[in-house]
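Protein modeling request. Please complete all fields; requests missing the sequence field cannot be processed.
Requester role: graduate student
Desired output: 3D structure, token encoding
Chains: 1
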Amino acid sequence: MGEEASRGALTDEERLVLLLERLADTATVLEVAGHLNELLIAEVPELGADPAIRSDLDAATAALAGALASTPAGEPLLGVVIPELVLDLVRAMARRRIDITVVLRGIRVGHRLSWQEVIRVLDAEVDDPELRYAALTLGWDRIAAAIEAVAEAAVAAYTAERDEWLRGAHARKAEVVAALLDGEPVDVDEATATLGYRLRRRHLAFMLWLDGPSSAPASALASAATAIRAELGAPDHLSHPEGARSLTIWLGFDTEPDPAALRRTALPPGVRTAYGLPALGVGGFVRSRSQALAARRVAEHAPGHPATTSYDDVELVSAFLDQPEVTSELVRRELGDLVAEGPVAARLRETAHGYLRAGGNARDAATLIGTHKNTVLYRLPQIEAALGHGVLDRRLKLEVALTMVEHLGEPVLQAARDLGRPHKGASSVGSRNLV
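Delivered output (435 residues):
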């Protein structure tokens, strides 16, 4: 009764203010932005083809959704201020030579999908049909005006960035790097002169990027690059922007470098890196960068991955990354009941993996996983019961499956569980006591 009286005393606009305040929390905004981007990329796949651009898109959409949700209902949405992350995305697309038509198509499709998302959220969050109608009525004209403002600002930002790059040395360097990566015929000496970086040497490529909705400034990427160069003692380097929040660095060496030094480099908070293998000449320049990109894709595929990822560690996983059904079936078949949820199964998987990496030596396995030899020996019968066979009987495939789980985490385990049990008679390990 009090709620009805209170609701009746408020205007539609005042009620909408209260609704927006309730929906403007960070978790809701990020959920809406993430769902919207998945729909957007399905219709404009160019926006998701490159990890750097996808990262910029996630940041831009979250910023725009946050601005829309947090603007008071009585004011024009966004006013005249477009989130800078939106313009950063557009500038990055201009530098990557993604056509302006893709930008405009993304805005048009985003406008339509955003309304579908608004309707979805209102249906889920608002029971009162009058308030839902008020939200749609008051929001339509202002969101349309906001999208128009975004389109105008995006075109201006894209044009300015494109013109600046076309006029400057950055454009010439970017053209040469793009030609090298695309496998076009290039005069190596001329390319070296344009880039200011010697191509007839060994190269180690690594990618740096800001993780998720990180608040770290873009300058943190440059700081991380400087720290890595110092740690490896690289005499020469080449920097290539991949997006507003991503950077590729090639380090040039006259002798064989030690990529493991990258693991010793302390990265600024919010910065992640992935690196390839050192290789010689133009082919090595291209190959090391392709490997760094593959390592980055693995690192971004599962939450909780370390800040530094080596291609050498995830080469096998990267080969399976675009075959999720094959991967989940392999994990289901090889791990059996070890795909179970809970800490018990997780410890058994860790022990099995350590035992295989130690060549079947329980003492060495205990050292790898930080436990006692007797604990490893105690767990082995439980592991074999869950597998339905000896740990070493299908060693290669079992180790591959455990490596997939190590790097891809819970998503691949859940996908395996969804496929069902691989055989009858295996006992569950999900709740068994474990030393």
